[in-house]
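Subject line: Sequence and fold of a protein, written as structure tokens
Body of memo: The sequence and its backbone structure tokens, given next.
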Amino acid sequence: MIPVLYESAGIVIVDKPAGVPTIPDRFGSDCVQAVLGRERGERLWVVHRLDREVSGVLVFARTAEAHRTLSMAFEDHTVHKTYEALTDGVYAAGEHRFENKLLRGKKRAYVSPHGKPAITLATCLGPSRQGLRWRLHPVTGRNHQLRVHLAGVGCPIRGDALYGATAPWTDGIALRAVAIDLPALGDEPARTHTATTLFESK
């Protein structure tokens, strides 16, 4: 079963497992939207996605009205997401801003002057036994944005061989959506929804 973190009349928020696509892929694989819809016996609307390899907080709308409201919120950048990552490499601890233009290819994204602007606010939290720890806030939502940005500074996400990682990861890649800030939705006040951390306790 897909773990449910929160639900209301308008939305359901789940903890997406790694290795399962958000929506059907070209191979016809089962997906979170379909599995959750079957488990709950209802239609669910997609408002954002996580890559197949990524785990964590994922929001679905339960009504057409909630879908419209959330879609507009994403377009207006009033939804804010937080990710945690573990990477290879060495980097200066502290706050950083990664910005370039990304173009999506068939399997991966590329830095290109013809791409769309991509901005990530990143905090490097330093090394740990698991790898180099990061907290990430994507300002834009380009495909594979966080994966490209970290690989581009010599810190590919563990398990992400597509972008040059050599260190393995047991389940998908070491990138997890740990929080999402949603604006007020109808009678629901604005609030932050969270999932468990990727990081081991010290």
